Amino acid sequence: MTDSELRADIHSIEPIPDADRDSTGPQQMWIWAGANIAPVNWALGALGIILKLGLMETISVIVLGNIVGCAIFATFTVMGHKTGVNQMVLSRSAFGVRGAYLPSILMFLMTLGWIGVNTYFPVKVSMGILGQFGVPDTWFVEIVVITLVMAVQVLIGIYGFYAIRTFEKYTVPPTIAIMVLMSVLAWTRPGVVNWSLTTSLPPGAHLAMLTLLMTAIGVGWGISWVTWASDYSRFVPKSVPSKSVFWYSYVGMFVPTVWLGILGATIASTTLDTDPAKMVSAVFGGPVSILVLLMVLHGPIATNILNVYSATLAALSAGLKFSRFWLTVIVGVAGYLVTLYFIFAPSFAKAFDNWMISLLLWMSPWAGVVLSDFFIKRKGKIDIAELYRSPETSAYGDINWAGMVAFCAGLVAGWLVEDGLVGALQGPISINLLGGADLSWLFGIGVAGLVYLALGKFRDVALLDRREQRRQLAASKSMDHVLRSTPGNVRWGLWDGRLKPVLLIASGDRVTIETLSGEPDDLPDPSLGYDIVPGHAEVKCLPRAGSHRRRHGPAVLEGAASVRRQHGHEELGTGSTLYFPVVVPGALFSAGGSVPAWFFVA
């Protein structure tokens, strides 16, 4: 393990610089595999049995659904790889700068629920295993386990991406080995799996439960991760092919989700329960239970470190003015309280299914809008600087009503064909015309995406008008300046912030910087017939301090602006100090000087 693997993550929601994008495809795979080697996936597989479906059809739904759901998820990882931007900031191109605050807040709240869900399972399984060694199942012991698990995952979340990547890299392989052992024990012992279990439901209810399961843990499981996807793929270098990022992320999500889902379904075929403690005690005991306990404790930590980290990014993307450190602490406390709710809930399975379905109701239309915007409308090309401009000046606008209307249309369409266990979320078309079938994920994505593309045609005209107005306004106010190399403008030595400005410039102004070639000792002999530029002799006689480098004095920027450099933009605020000369690619240098160059402020 190297020092670079344990370094603190200093990044927030700004684009990741190319120099810091050092993640690899396999590392992305370990991240998503670790996040899904969790006890929650046992219960996901067991849900089909609890809904009175047969074992084989439950397994089929888990496999086929995740083939589609994981593909949707992996597509979102490509967005972060192409841009270096986290997922919620990327959604500003579709919803507007402040319009994207809504999904950011929804994701923040949703992630708190996931932290509670993922901490609930290790607590229950740990109590079941510890009970085999005489440790009583009391509320005090449960609180101790919750506190220890939460403390570890918040600490790793504070360190950020690099700690997450390192944790998953070194813990996932041995965890997979334990999964293999668990699977062999479960599937080879007699009486553990009822392979012949079939459904007892009538045809109408049977179809309804199949679609409900497909929404909740088939396609829906991959969709439930899309708001996290780019937060981690943004660290992969652009030199890595996007196809590689897609497939590594896909495999990392698909394999453990399907594997543990099938394991949970097979064990539940005899226990007929989603309680993870009962599922473990029915199969595993003695020394094996210790290994299972290690995997159980690893699962929520591996998952929740992503939840804690991404929740803070979502809060920052919503405009909250806290440091990532304090947001991480807040997330940890809130997640702790949600965990207590799930621990003491009368029926976890019902609470979990209700909550899962409600998540997909808003995530599906959000995914439809963002996918349509990024891949169809913009062909994968985003003006990254515009994502970070103020709502008043960004080319993506304050609130993109096309995105908001499409999102709401997808919400309504998804609700009409939804059949969750929550009465308020049971749509009339699903109940009255489809016999209770749940197609909310499909209609949510499809309707939202189509409506957005239709409305986006009208907004494109307004967007072009906004950019043209900005260009014309900047052109009308811009001024040309010439900064000459005179004794009053040039100083020898190190930079000094106490220097008075030699030039005031505004956003949009254009500056021509006059520079001098050659150090004083390199000036040509007048007897050779060369003319010395007026003022050069005087400049060479100026006093020097600490350096033999010649510098222009500072220029102070009036009003906020961004300086166009060779690689992107640098945001500057009112009163920012700009030092000259600026190094320009292709400029000629002679003994420390340069030919005149242009300096742009936009």
Describe this structure in words.
This protein is mainly alpha-helical. It folds into two domains: 25-348, Orthogonal Bundle (Hydantoin permease); 478-600, no CATH class. It has 20 helices and twelve strands. The chain has helices at 25-36, 40-50, 55-83, 87-90, 92-95, 101-131, 139-159, 161-188, 203-223, 230-233, 242-271, 276-281, 287-317, 324-343, 348-377, 384-387, 401-416, 428-432, 440-477, 536-540, and strands at residues 480-483, 490-492, 503-506, 510-513, 550-552, 554-558, 561-564, 569-572, 577-579, 589-590, 593-594, 597-600. It has a three-stranded mixed β-sheet, with no helix packed on it. A three-stranded mixed β-sheet has the order 3-6-9, with no helix packed on it. The chain has a two-stranded antiparallel sheet with strand order 2-5.
CA(first)-CA(last) distance? 44 Å
Helix content: 55-70%
User: Which architecture of the largest domain per CATH?
Assistant: Orthogonal Bundle
Largest sheet: 3 strands, mixed
CATH-level-4 superfamily name of the largest domain = Hydantoin permease
Write down the domain tally: 2
- Give start-end ranges of low-pLDDT stretches: 547-602
Structural class comes to mainly alpha
Rg estimate, integer Å: 30 Å
The strand line-up of the biggest sheet is 1-4-12
In brief:
The chain has 20 helices and twelve strands. It has 602 residues and is mainly alpha-helical. The two termini are 44 Å apart.
What key phrases describe this protein's structure?
mainly alpha, 3-stranded mixed β-sheet, 602 residues, Hydantoin permease
